[in-house]
Write a structure and sequence with these properties.
Two copies of one chain form a homodimer. Chain A contains 36 helices and 33 strands. By secondary structure, chain A is an alpha/beta fold.
């Protein structure tokens, strides 16, 4: 069978490249072998290759002579490297045994530590460490875990025995147990094993070792592991490796220690040693929090004003050895590393080194620095940054050190944090904001009528709705922090009061929300804003450059409805506006009145007068947008919202409206009632409105072309794109094209200039995708409205789905929330179909995507792979999309 | 160029088969040529072939010498056949000129009559007819239409001149105009033509003829014609033919007449002459209603007790000649014919013969008779019956002779007619029906809560909703007449009164509704029920036989929710139940209480108790259904309706419920409010419910399998199909399959017998169709739920779409209402995709369709072409679907 046990550490000189391959020795084994190979002081060990697992799990569970011989050589290698002997009563070699597949996989065997302990060697360990309590505790832990995983003894039996032991001694915690108590428990544990298995706990260390190896192989075939593999499409033939490694102890004496070090500061990204350690301790002591870890460097200790010596001061040699490894490690792994180390009697051992977790700010700085240092390329730097983390940097965050009075937790719907006074409706929000007050709008859920209040507020908090509810979507597009679905809120609108997490509060009380975590806190929590403009700009520049180099293209535009949003978008590098919704323009006070008069007036003259008024206002909006986006494409979406969306909801507002329209309240109620829809998403909206009320689209089109002509007097003309929502038939588009042509020509004649424009269809219902070939006959571009396309393709309303989507994702019914990450199998198939048929009919058909998915990295990668021309994202997510696009281009190669 | 002017009538002896081909001489020309060819006395004429149009419209508008020569020969043929001469001052030949493409096409030139009239020939016509008024009126009509279509004079100018002439003479109607007035108007008309065209009205009859021919060719290229062709996919190269035919006059003397005859009675189908005529009159006189037409036969005259002689009595020779043609005509056209005829001075002319319109009952009888007579084959007979007309026969209809007091008109949502007392809610309906009263449930719209009231009522009338609204769908499945969308209804629930078409009525007043026409009438209108069981049964037998002979297969099942519906379905020949909805079972009084307790009880025990109660009841329902459908497949759909659909709507009902649940009304309102959904169609329903509340499906499955076992004790086992609604992912189906397997096995073990069952997915959302390959891994059958699939594919709620679908169809944006006829381009494409991928994954996958489209003939044809195994329709539509399937099979060849 050849070599299938691979040594590392000590004087192992394996030249077999398989020794460092994940597929052969598993992730853990490969990492250890690589560290050993570059000369790091890794405790010696060996790994049994995954091949043996396949052989073993294949059926006969055979452990043959050849394997026994190679494992024996492995143990000999450990003995030689450590100067200890496996099972030796004086200087016993203890080992850890762990499973390791090439992919991380729950359901596999837990690590067994301190294998090699028995009634004899436990005494040697006590003596060597000078800590009998530690030795007997280690032994009982070993029996417990080995009994469970290798001998099949129910772990509750051990836990019960421990509980009884503590009760008998009148102890409340494990900490009170002394050496003699642990020793007594070991006896108890051994008799449990004997009772349950019919045989005494194995004292023979070889038997222990083979039991553990077999347990690892058996665990590959466990129910949990098989389920996980099935759900994640992992082949059963991969198998798991088994790594056996010599134990080292940081608690032997005052020349021993244990700690964690980062090669750079994981908070700021600065290139300086960062971490903590404990003298004469083992890793568990750090985790258990029984002793307070100390600083690694003198500078850090002094900065914190701490007394206990830093490692730099107490163990200067070991410290120098440790930091001396940093460059080597970073050069090998090409990243900032998080290192677990142990010093055993003055000798440094590296137990583990892996990419260190970091804040978004640190990630950005390190990526930038490492390129400067020549450690990584720009391309690698780009791939290192989690795109969604960028969003964190663009918004204020809570001061991590400030105390918090947590009231409740909702869904992190729009990143950033904000403090302000509670307001319970949009009008109050606007009124108090005008006085210069910071307010947080708290609603059961928001509706389009709340938009002006959301604009006025510094943050939004809702009791209902998911990550893609109205509040969430609008807040993200505005860059406002938002927490939704906070079930612990109940509002008493009449009393202007509310309860949050059981705490009574009143309108005007101050709260703080963190849209990045979903937390809601009482009072004002101090905020910080990352000052990373430099690194951020550099990174974005690389993204564009790298994108160009790959020869692939995916532009990034913004979903921006107002001049303010356009400015933010352009500042963040948006290459145009991919979606300018015209609904929000109608929701300002004087406008919504006109809109309501148009909708409800019985007289044609009054209706037309209302439209004329709106034309005037809408033209001004458009002109400013065209000026701000001079030279760039701007896709204006014609009115999409059902008309009943513009009607007032409260009885008081209805009464006011009835008066202003001079019709009875009853009649108004009846008119409004007639507009009710069972499923508004599937009703009279989008271009159906434009066909039912041609005068409405006519007003918008006239405003659009007049504004474009005016803007073109002083600015480079924007590239006009007229976007028709909810198209399901080419005939709809053809009818609207005639209207656009007529009005455009009319305006151009009057203004004496001609601008080019294009007409396009939003692909938002499956039929549009299925009819793409004929639609392309009438459309110069398609814009995939992935929110609605997802809702209709899945037959799932995004707000309504919030009630069950969590469970669906947890159970793996959907791999991810389809309203966050594009459902490639369903919605993606329709996009692919539309692209194929659309481009077949019109080869230069422009394709974009403008749903919430436009800034989701996986979705952006899909769009790139599909050959779309651009994605469009809310302004604050434009950088996220740009980075995601560059990463996707790099990964696509 | 060969022959391109084809003669017919007179002694024309064309042997060129092209003379009778629609593609060459147009529909009208071909019909005339065929009639002439079989020896019918058709006024002589000739047709210029479509080929010339292509040539002419091709660009140069050339009318060359060859064409002139062939047209001159055509005129000579007319002159020879009539003994008149074109332009002759004494015996002038007058002709009609009409356009005729091979397909019927609006936008083409109107027929020009009496061409050949001028200042001289008009006098001859006056003399010959002895009616100067008629002659001058004809002349002015000729100038008017010719001026418009051939000379481009705005027709308003003529109309204005006529108005002025009447005013000048103090007349209110055209009837008052005498010969001298018409003559004066002719002068006026001629000067209009001269002023507008710069030339006098052409007196040269050849110039008139060529002007008309050119106008026909020009009209082929008109805006309207081109638009129509584009929208209907008609090639411009087809061209139109021009037919020139000699005019004949039924108003020359008392030996002249005009009339209409049917070869069989179009009301009953009996083989007897039917029709009406007028002596010394022309066709217009019949249409204008100035004189009352008389009976053709003596028998009919006597039966009606009329005085004026019948044609049989007044003109026995012409009558004998006319009826003598019937057999010849029916043998040639193989159908009952509607004949327009004129007798000119004793000579019979047939102007037109086409398939006669007929009632459904007549259609059935004639089809059956004609097969008996050997006139047509069974296959032809089947193809003659309009499947939807069958539905008419299965329901009571209004006595056509009874007087009606029409109140309003709504949409004909479910065929049949009914009279009864108005009731305004389901409870009252049930209460009064229990007393034996016939009631009509009148609602703004219905909801599932009204089902028991709809069952109790003899008819349903709603103010809102379309042809596929809840009321319409349920009414059709119950076979109840239903009129929906009757906007002229407003209900005052508090006062228990309503207004229909402005008429005040109260609960208890009697109305009559006709679900076949949408009419609502005051009082009780007598009903009739067709007694056509014999012919109907015969036809259905042929349908099955013919279907078998074609070697094609498309089964027909029924959508049946109750034992009563199952019985109707089986009687109508359903081959199983394709959809048994379980929701209606929950809406009976004691059941809905249990359902509400399940939904709202805070205690798990109370919830389970409610379910246990339902289990018991549902098992009884299922057992009866399985017994009724013994041996046949029965597809039971697991609960699909969102839970809030079971909650009460009125405040009073809420209060009662709160009391019975022993929770506060406020709390109940809050619980109910939390269940509110923005778009219920896209919410927590279908199998999402089953996954969220596994105990609910568990109850249904247990009831189902226990009932099946019980039924199997005494009856042949039904073929159990468990149908999972609203599937969008294979994982959903897999989860439910585990549940079904467990419960089925449990029940089989307990009952000591095993029944086979199958699990299937309803394909109701586009994603299901797109994922069909993986779904088929878990499903043994697919059932296309075409209602929901249409709603989601088009992004269009069927009830909400009622507000704009009419306009959409009128404007050709959709070719047909997609909720009535399956949208082949969109929804059909998904069905085709699902079939292909599904059968690729599982070759024996069974495919059915169970939406409202299951009885729409075009949709049924699509299902057959797609190779579906069956369609499922509401019980009363099963015969419709069977006939449609047979027709589709025949047409598919």
């Amino acid at each position: 069978m050849g070599e299938f046990v691979f040594h590392f550490g000590g004087d192992a000189q394996s030249v077999d490249p398989r020794a460092q391959e994940k597929a052969v020795v598993g992730g853990k084994g490969a990492n250890l072998a690589q560290m050993a190979a570059i000369g790091l002081p890794v405790p010696p060990g060996f790994t049994i290759s995954t091949e043996i697992c396949a052989h073993y799990a294949g059926g006969d569970r055979l452990i043959d002579d050849d394997l026994r011989a190679q494992v024996a050589q492995g143990i000999a290698h450990l003995e030689a490297a450590t100067g200890r002997r496996f099972g030796d009563p004086v200087t016993p070699l203890l080992v850890s045994v762990r499973s390791g597949a090439s992919v991380s996989m729950p359901g596999m065997m837990d690590t067994v530590l301190d294998l090699g302990l028995n009634d004899v060697t436990v005494e040697a360990l006590a003596k060597a460490s000078g800590d009998a309590r530690f030795a007997w505790d280690s032994y009982r832990r070993f029996i417990q875990i080995y009994g469970d995983v290798a001998l099949g003894v129910d772990h509750y039996l051990f836990e019960d025995a421990l509980e009884i032991a503590k009760e008998d001694n009148g102890f409340f915690t494990d900490v009170e147990m002394e050496a003699q108590h642990w020793k007594a428990l070991v006896s108890e544990y051994k008799s449990i094993v004997e009772t349950e298995t019919g045989a005494p706990f194995p004292q023979d260390v070889d038997a222990q070792l083979w039991g553990a190896i077999a347990a690892v192989f058996d665990s590959w075939d466990s129910e949990r592991a098989r389920t996980y593999r099935r759900l994640n499409g992992i082949s059963a033939s991969l198998g798991t490796a088994v790594t056996v490694q010599a134990m080292v102890f940081g608690n032997r004496d005052q020349q021993s220690a244990t700690g964690v070090a980062f090669t750079r500061d994981p908070t700021t990204g600065a290139r300086q040693c960062f971490g903590e350690w404990l003298i004469n301790a083992q890793g568990e002591d750090v985790v258990a929090g029984l002793r307070t870890p100390q600083y690694l460097t003198r500078a850090a200790r002094e900065a914190a004003g701490a007394k206990p010596l830093s490692m730099e001061e107490a163990m200067p040699e070991a410290f120098a050895q440790l930091t001396g490894l940093f460059t080597k490690l970073e050069e090998h792994f090409r990243d900032m590393l998080d290192i677990e180390f142990t010093v055993e009697q003055g000798r440094l051992w590296v137990l583990q080194a892996r990419s260190g977790k970091r804040t978004a700010a640190a990630a950005l700085r390190m990526a930038s620095d490492m390129v400067g240092e020549g450690l990584i390329t720009q391309q690698e730097a780009l791939l290192r940054i989690e795109p969604m983390a960028l969003a964190q940097l663009l918004h204020p965050t809570l001061d991590p050190d400030a105390p918090r009075d947590l009231l409740a937790k909702g869904l992190p719907a729009s990143p950033g944090a904000a403090s302000g006074a509670i307001v319970l409706d949009a009008e109050t929000a606007e009124r108090r904001a005008e006085r210069g007050e910071a307010v947080i709008l708290v609603r059961v859920e928001t509706s389009p009528e709340d938009i002006h209040g959301m604009h006025a507020a510094v943050g939004i908090l809702t009791a209902r709705g998911g990550m893609t509810s109205h509040a969430a979507v609008v807040a993200r597009s505005m860059g406002r922090p938002c927490v939704t679905g906070t079930a612990a809120i109940s509002i008493d609108a009449a009393k202007r009061s509310l309860s949050i997490g059981g705490r009574q509060m009143r309108e005007g009380d101050t709260i703080t929300i963190d849209g990045t975590t979903g937390e809601v806190m009482a009072g004002s929590v101090p905020l910080t804003r990352s000052e990373l403009v430099g690194d951020f700009a550099v990174l974005m520049g690389w993204a564009d450059q790298v994108m160009a180099e790959t020869g692939r293209h995916l532009g990034v535009r913004a979903n921006a409805d107002t001049p303010a949003e356009c400015l933010v978008a352009r500042q963040f590098g948006a290459q145009g506006v991919g979606l300018c919704r015209t609904e929000p323009m109608f929701f300002q006070a004087e406008r919504i009145d006109a809109m309501r008069r148009f909708i409800l007036s019985p007289e044609a003259r009054a209706r037309q007068k209302a439209l004329d008024h709106l034309l005037h206002l809408q033209r001004d909006d458009f002109r400013q947008i065209f000026q701000d986006m001079a030279g760039l494409p701007v896709a204006i979406r014609l009115l999409d919202l059902p008309l009943h969306g513009f009607l007032p909801e409260s009885q008081a507002d209805m009464a006011t409206l009835a008066e202003s329209l001079d019709i009875g309240l009853d009649k108004l109620r009846r008119l409004a009632g007639e507009m009710h829809e069972f499923n508004p998403l599937l009703g009279l909206r989008g271009c159906r409105l434009g066909i039912a009320y041609p005068e409405l689209y006519a007003m918008q089109l006239r405003a659009l072309f007049e504004a474009a002509c005016e803007a073109a007097q002083t600015h480079a003309p924007a590239q006009l794109e007229v976007m028709v929502p909810l198209v399901s038939s080419a005939a709809e588009l053809a009818a609207i094209r005639v209207q656009v042509e007529t009005i455009a020509q009319d305006v151009f004649n009057a203004q004496g200039l001609t601008l080019s424009w294009r007409l396009g269809a939003m692909i938002e219902v499956p039929r549009a995708a299925l009819m793409a070939g004929t639609l392309a006959g009438e459309a110069e571009f398609f814009s995939f409205g992935s929110n609605d396309l997802t809702q209709t393709t899945l037959g799932m309303g995004r707000d309504d789905a919030a009630r069950f989507m969590g469970r669906y994702v947890d159970r793996g019914i959907y791999g991810a929330d389809p309203f966050i990450t594009l459902d490639e199998a369903g919605v993606g198939a329709l996009i692919a179909l539309a692209r194929e048929q659309g481009r077949a009919a019109r080869p230069d058909l422009e394709l974009g995507l403008c749903g919430e998915h436009g800034a989701d990295p996986a979705s952006v990668a899909f769009c790139l792979a599909q050959g779309l021309d651009y994605v469009s994202a809310s302004p604050y997510r434009v950088p996220v999309a740009r980075l995601a696009a560059a990463q996707a281009a790099l990964r696509a190669g």
